[in-house]
Design goal:
binds cytidine-5'-monophosphate, Rossmann fold, alpha/beta, single chain, five-stranded parallel β-sheet, about 400 residues
Length: about 400
C-alpha cells in the first residue's frame, strides 16, 4: 500500500545491514520507489550493487554525487521523498545526528530533509543500554525523530538481549503509520475478527469459516489512520498485530461480554467477526462416543451487532454480510434490521472472495441505500476502502446531527 511513495532507505554499518535488503524487497513489493543511501561502513557488509539491482535506482554512497538534473544530490532526494528510514541505525549514526554532525551523504540528508525520519536501531545489547545512546535517542525524539525499539533475542555478537533490528514487517508497519493521513484520529474503534467456537465436547465445536484476516487488516489500517483500536478476536492463527491492544475470546457470549465492557468508550464498532449463530444447548464434559446417530440440541447465540444497534447512540456501526445468494437484498435487510450505518457485503461463493483467502470482492452499502461495487482486492486494500467510506459516512453523520 505504498504505491507512488518515494522512500529513502539509509543503511549503516552493522551486521543487520543484510536485513535491509529484505526491507527494500518488502517496500518495493508494496509499490514504493526506494532510493538507498549507504554509509562507508555499511558497504563492508553488503555491496551497493545488491541494493541497486533490487531498487532499480542508483545507490548513493558519496556526498559529492551530482544528479543529471545538476541539483545537489542530497537536496534533490530530500525534497522528493515522502519518508526517510534508517535501518539498521548504529549507535554511531544516532550519535552523529543527535550532535549535528553531517560528514557524509546520509547525515547530510537527515539535516536537509523535512520528511519524517524513522530510526530502526540495531546494536549490541550493552551499547543499546548505554546512557550515551539512550540520551542521544531521547534528544532526537524530542526533536520529532521517530524511533522503533530493537527486538530482543540472540545477537550476532553472541550475546542475548535487546539490540536486534526490529522485524521487517514491523518496520514496514511503522512506515505506513507515519505515511497515512490521520483521518480517524479521535475515534475509538472496536473491531471484531475471526470466528467464534462453541464447544460440543472437549474435542469438537461449532464454528464458522473465518481466518480473521479481514478484521485484523481493518484494525491495523484503522490504527495507521490515527484511531485508537481494540481488536477483539475469536480463535485465529494470525499473529497479534504488534502493539495493537487485542483481546482474545472463544465463544459468542464471551465476545459479547468483551464488547459490552468496552462499548461505552467506543465511537465506532466494526463487526467483521463471523459469530456462530447457534451453540450446543449442553456441552459434554467428556468426548461423545461414536455410537450411531447423535442429535445435537442447539440454542441461538445473541445477535451481538443487533444488540449494539439498539443502544447505538451516535456510534458508527459497520456490519458484514457474508452471503451465498441475493447479496444486496439480504445485506440491505440486515443493515436496516440491525440499525447499521454501513454494511459490507460479499458473496462467499465467488472465487477470490470470502473466508480464508487473502483477497476479497465486496460491495459497500450505505444507510441511504447507495451501493458501491469493488473489484477483487487484497484484504488490506479492502480495509482501506471500507475505512474511506467510514470516514466519509462519519462526516455525513456529523453534518446531519
Ligand atoms: O445476520 P448475520 O449473521 O448474517 O449478520 C452478519 C453481521 O452480524 C456480521 O457483522 C456479524 O459480525 C454480526 N453478527 C453478530 N452476532 C451474531 C451473528 C452475526 O454480531 N450472532
Amino acid at each position: 500500500m505504498l504505491q507512488g511513495k518515494e522512500i529513502l532507505l539509509g543503511v549503516t554499518g552493522g551486521i543487520a545491514a543484510y536485513k535491509s535488503v529484505l526491507l527494500l524487497r518488502e517496500l518495493t513489493k508494496e509499490g514504493a520507489n526506494v532510493h538507498v543511501i549507504m554509509t562507508k561502513s555499511a558497504q563492508n557488509f553488503v555491496a551497493p550493487l545488491t541494493f541497486q539491482t533490487l531498487s532499480g535506482n542508483p545507490v548513493t554512497t558519496e556526498i559529492f554525487t551530482l544528479f543529471a538534473s545538476s541539483k545537489i544530490g542530497h537536496i534533490s532526494l530530500a525534497d522528493r521523498a515522502d519518508l526517510l528510514v534508517i535501518a539498521p541505525a548504529t549507535a554511531n549514526i544516532i550519535g552523529k545526528i543527535a550532535n549535528g554532525i553531517a560528514d557524509d551523504f546520509l547525515t547530510t540528508m537527515v539535516m536537509a530533509t523535512r520528511v519524517p525520519v524513522l530510526f530502526a536501531p540495531a546494536m549490541n545489547t550493552n551499547m543499546w543500554a548505554s546512557p550515551v545512546v539512550q540520551a542521544n535517542i531521547t534528544r532526537l525524539k524530542s526533536m520529532g525523530y521517530h524511533f522503533m525499539d530493537p527486538a530482543e533475542g540472540e545477537l550476532a555478537c553472541g550475546t542475548t538481549g535487546r539490540g536486534k533490528l526490529a522485524d521487517v514487517d514491523e518496520i514496514v508497519e511503522d512506515i505506513k503509520t507515519l505515511l497515512y493521513p490521520k483521518d480517524l484520529a479521535g475515534e475509538k474503534i472496536l473491531v471484531t475478527a475471526g470466528p467464534t467456537e462453541e464447544a460440543i465436547d472437549p474435542a469438537r465445536c461449532i464454528t464458522n469459516r473465518s481466518s480473521g484476516k479481514m478484521g485484523y487488516n481493518l484494525a491495523m489500517v484503522a490504527r495507521r489512520r490515527g484511531a485508537e483500536v481494540i481488536l477483539i478476536s475469536g480463535p485465529s492463527c494470525l499473529p497479534v498485530p504488534c502493539g495493537l491492544p487485542t483481546i482474545h475470546c472463544t465463544t459468542a457470549l464471551e465476545m459479547q461480554q468483551i464488547i459490552n465492557e468496552h462499548l461505552e468508550e467506543a465511537t465506532m464498532v466494526i463487526m467483521a467477526a463471523a459469530v456462530a449463530d447457534f451453540r450446543p444447548a449442553e456441552t459434554s464434559k467428556t468426548k461423545i462416543k461414536r455410537l450411531g446417530t447423535h442429535c445435537l440440541d442447539l440454542e441461538p447465540n445473541p445477535d451481538i451487532l443487533a444488540g449494539i444497534g439498539k443502544v447505538k447512540g451516535d456510534r458508527f456501526l459497520v456490519g458484514f454480510a457474508a452471503e451465498t445468494d441475493d447479496l444486496i437484498d439480504n445485506a440491505q435487510e440486515k443493515m436496516k434490521r440491525k440499525n447499521l450505518d454501513m454494511i459490507v457485503a460479499n458473496d462467499v461463493t465467488a472465487c477470490g472472495a470470502g473466508f480464508c483467502c487473502d483477497t476479497n470482492i465486496i460491495k459497500i452499502i450505505e444507510r441511504d441505500g447507495s451501493v458501491h461495487d469493488f473489484p477483487q482486492m487484497s484484504k488490506e486494500k479492502v480495509a482501506e476502502v471500507i475505512l474511506d467510506h467510514v470516514v466519509a459516512g462519519r462526516k455525513k453523520m456529523k453534518k446531519e446531527s
